[in-house]
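Ticket reopened. Same input as before:
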Amino acid sequence: MRDLVSEMTNCLQVRDVEIRRNGSALLDVSNLVLDGPGPTLLLGPNGAGKSLLLRCLHGLISPDQGRVLQDNEALNATHMARQAMVFQQPVLLRRSVSANLDFVLKRQGLKRAARKARIVELLAEGGLEGKARQSARSLSGGEAQRLAILRALAVTPETLFLDEPTSALDPNATQMIERMILRASSRGVRIVMVTHDIGQARRLAADIVMMQGGRVVEHGPAKQVLDSPESEASRRYLAGGLVT
Amino acid sequence: MQGFASEFRIALSLILNGDAELWAIVLLSLQVSLFAVLISALIGMPIGAALAVARFPGRRVLIVLMNALMGFPPVVVGLLVYLMLSRSGPLGVLELLYTPTAMIIAQVVLVTPIVAALTRQVVEMLADEYSEQLRSLGVSRLASVPVLLWDARLALVTALLAGFGRAIAEVGAVIIVGGNINHVTRVMTTTIALETSKGNLALALALGAILIGIAVAVNAMVSAASLRAEQEGLRHA
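Engineering reply: fixed in the latest deploy. New output:
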């Protein structure tokens, strides 16, 4: 029988991955396949292992056991180079806005003129025109996160991981970032994102991975998981989320 | 008391009238200390940055050793450099003893641990913050060193100024290896010591005033650089 997963491109798989600290499992995922076209959102309470799973998928953390595969190959540096990640607290270089973008573009070997043109495009994409020469550290929270996403997109990633990118932002800033994420997704960038915001999951997700206690308790199409969750853990989380 | 007042007046006139001997001493002091700091930066910054990002057995011991070297007594440094450069020492053939080069070497030995230790501290703090992001962007540990050094530049200016402050005010080591020879190795601190012992207080006071002025200026620059670094989110411990 042909392995359907092997025919997919940019397919992420987690197989029997376990991360343990002080005797307890922080992450214990036996099988997870991310191969759908739309954004995948990881939902779950604090300590569920969402951020840890995201880091494992990106190769920032190596699991104690098990493997992360991309297109049926063990995740390696070549795969990582085609991925990018945006963190909850944007980590910006202590340079100007344009220098933050230039740093990534230079590493890709682009010539000066091409870099300048690309920076103009990216700044327009993130609504940061006119901020090019401003110190990146002086940007507002929303602008800083937009710059972090632009810098990640400058890598032209196949997969973009986002760890609660809007958790500290107001609704306007959140909306701008969600639009950027959806535009990237529509261009074919696989989005894998952690959020606590159930409304955001409804707005963005094509599929949802619900986590609790380091385990995946449910994975399915967003509508199904949000409207008719199968697991008790999902039902409890969603009920609590809707109440608050 | 009247005598002191007169010495102060003469000191002031030496400064304001551009006394050639006085300003030659000041110039040599600045040259020696600036060269020493430059060389210390070239040695100390990469060492500090490497210790900040590299992980290897014995790293902690090296850090403790480097921190301890910051408080190394200058006269002992002077003695060790003297032994190295003296005619019967391993570097005696170079005939560097009692030259400005010998003074630079002594100051480099004193300043390099300061620059390296402060660099390590600053870069390690920044590396903690940048680590995951740089790895995500495919930047290796080694390639992260210039990135971290550049982004820590404001805090590193503070480290260099601290090193310069130590070098320019140093007397014990440079007098041992420099010898305080007139028009050759006479710098501000050694001249102050010598002229005071001879009772020539005017020249000593004039040099003292300039040295204090330099110390104040360096401290003002350290404060300004620290403030900028702090504003950039990198508090220098």
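The longest helix of chain A spans residues 171-186. Residues 1-7 of chain A have pLDDT under 50 and may be disordered. Please confirm and we'll close it.
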